[in-house]
């Protein structure tokens, strides 16, 4: 009976140590998950910023292409006017 009690106390102590170690590992993994989530959030923010910048560049490019075409048409008109003189 006494031996059984000692054995159960040893098992309980071992189980408590294992539970404490598991909780420690859980906190560690939760910290890693939080860090990973922060990095992911930053990456998503950067990707969104890059997407916005790309859209602005595309808009500027479209305006510049339109301006170049307008200049070309003006130049063609000027040349036609010169030949008519």
UniProtKB/TrEMBL annotation:
<dbReference type="InterPro" id="IPR014751">
    <property type="entry name" value="XRCC4-like_C"/>
</dbReference>
<dbReference type="GO" id="GO:0016459">
    <property type="term" value="C:myosin complex"/>
</dbReference>
<feature type="coiled-coil region">
    <location>
        <begin position="5"/>
        <end position="60"/>
    </location>
</feature>
<keyword id="KW-0505">Motor protein</keyword>
<keyword id="KW-0518">Myosin</keyword>
<keyword id="KW-0175">Coiled coil</keyword>
<protein>
    <recommendedName>
        <fullName>Myosin tail domain-containing protein</fullName>
    </recommendedName>
</protein>
């Amino acid at each position: 009976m006494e031996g059984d009690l000692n054995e159960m106390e040893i098992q309980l102590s071992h189980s408590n140590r294992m539970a404490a170690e598991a909780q420690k590992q859980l906190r560690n993994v939760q910290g890693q998950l939080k860090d990973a989530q922060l990095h992911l959030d930053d990456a998503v923010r950067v990707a969104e910023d890059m997407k916005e910048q790309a859209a602005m560049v595309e808009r500027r490019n479209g305006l510049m292409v339109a301006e170049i075409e307008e200049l070309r048409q003006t130049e063609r008109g000027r040349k036609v006017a010169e030949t008519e003189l």
